[in-house]
Design brief:
Blueprint (H helix, E strand, L loop, with lengths): L2 H7 L42 H14 L3 E5 L2 H12 L5 E5 L4 H10 L6 E5 L4 H7 L4 E7 L11 H11 L3 E4 L4 H4 L9 E4 L14 E5 L2 H13 L6 H11 L2 H21 L3 E5 L9 H7 L6 E6 L2 H11 L4 E2 L9 E3 L11 H6 L7 E4 L5 H13 L2
Parallel strand pairs: 2-3, 2-4, 4-5, 5-6, 10-11
Antiparallel strand pairs: 1-7, 6-7, 8-9, 9-12, 11-12
Helix pairs in contact: 1-2, 2-9, 3-8, 12-14
């Protein structure tokens, strides 16, 4: 089946009891068993362990990413946490992209490091740097591509080759591009992580996460953690995400087209110092973006003349662009990573990886591109 067909139909069948076309919200803690001898005959006992609505979403996510199994979590960070818990033990070492979501950095340095897990934050855009970072204790390579917020790309196939040659699982955070634009498992990755809060939902309505696994062993390990740690997504969130995912391809296509137009406008504006968007020929890794993905996504960042204060003035002046921390929604959002999404990253570490105090991140929505550009143009005139 094609992607658009699968995003509508995968994991869903008409309700056998009523014929309802939408999967019911099985808002139930427990499930009645026919007898002790037939315990789990219908596959469900308690919603922390498994829930029919959540199962439907998990099946759809596995199909869309091309994996053998998928697991839905309460948040995107719960999904990353599950990967770490499933694959890392005290004394192990992991290689993580030096540019990644601030929550990933916080989880590694403030939580797992307390239990004897060592992390190296490597420039995963440099395959030699990845190979050099691997030790005999490395049990996971975790990359985020494109990275949040700088949009640095990692060569997924290249890193996967390094990981495979050492017998190390490679997990990829695919939140920014989704399986519609980027296919990590087909490029050799072993696990894919998503914040479903973003593009799978697309409407600022839920918080959730997912892990999709290429092989049954990793899927079993992640599923065990989901149950043991109680990280499962709620039925209502799963139901809303099932509905949001039906329009994923159409939304991200429109958002990406808008982002291209906005990036080109910003690049030509005299009050803008720099613009970073993978669809621009000036993007340092433009060739890799073209090779690795079928689209450039809807995330971009820029810096304006006048530095931090000018950036703050611009964000206060906008009407259509909402100052908020999320991304991937139909509404266009603008964010200041240094004080918002990446505030837990030490200032020197932020600067080292290119997250400057003046960096303004935008998540482009589905509004008319002309209106979004007009709003930015008006705001830039005030600087």
């Amino acid at each position: 089946m094609g992607f658009r067909t699968d995003q509508i139909h995968a994991g869903v069948v008409p309700d056998p009891a009523t014929g309802a076309i939408l999967t019911p919200i099985h808002q139930s803690t427990t499930f009645v068993q026919p007898s002790v001898d037939d315990y789990m005959a219908k596959g469900y006992s308690y919603s922390r362990s498994a829930n029919p609505t959540v199962s439907a979403l998990q099946e759809r996510l596995a199909v869309l990413e091309g994996g053998t199994g998928a697991w839905a979590f309460a948040t995107g960070m719960a999904a990353t946490n599950a990967v770490f818990m499933a694959l890392l033990n005290a004394g192990d070492h992991a290689v993580v992209s030096d540019v990644a979501y601030g929550g990933t950095y916080r989880l590694a340095t403030k939580v797992f490091s307390r239990f004897g897990v060592e992390f190296t934050f490597a420039d995963t855009s440099d395959l030699d740097a990845v190979a050099a970072a691997v030790t005999d204790r490395t049990r996971l390579i975790f990359t985020e591509t494109p990275a949040n917020p700088t949009l640095k790309y990692t060569d997924i196939a290249g890193v996967s080759n390094i990981a495979t040659s050492r017998g190390i699982p490679h997990a990829v955070d695919n939140t920014f591009l989704t399986p519609y634009f980027q296919r990590p498992l087909e490029l050799g990755a072993d696990l894919v992580v998503h914040s479903t809060t973003k593009y799978f939902d697309g409407h600022n309505a839920t918080v959730g996460g997912a892990v999709v696994c290429r092989d049954e062993d990793s899927s079993e390990a992640v599923g065990f953690v989901q149950n043991a740690a109680g990280l499962i997504m709620s039925p209502m969130v799963a139901w809303l995400t099932l509905q949001g995912s039906k329009t994923l391809s159409e939304r991200i296509e429109r958002q990406s087209a808008n982002a291209q137009a906005i990036a080109e406008f910003l690049e030509s504006h005299p009050r803008v110092d720099s613009v970073t968007y993978p669809g621009l020929a000036s993007f340092p890794q433009h060739d890799l973006a073209v090779k690795q993905a079928s689209g450039f996504g809807a995330m971009a960042w820029f810096e304006v003349e006048g530095g931090v204060e000018a950036g703050k003035l611009l964000m206060r002046s906008l009407r259509l662009w909402t100052l908020a921390e999320n991304l991937g929604s139909v509404e266009s959002l603008i964010t200041h990573p240094a004080t918002m999404t990446h505030s837990d990253v030490e200032p020197e570490e932020r600067l080292r990886v290119g997250i400057t105090d003046g960096l303004v991140r935008i998540s482009v929505g589905m509004e008319d591109a002309e209106d979004l550009i007009d709003d930015l143009a008006r705001g830039l005139q005030l600087l």
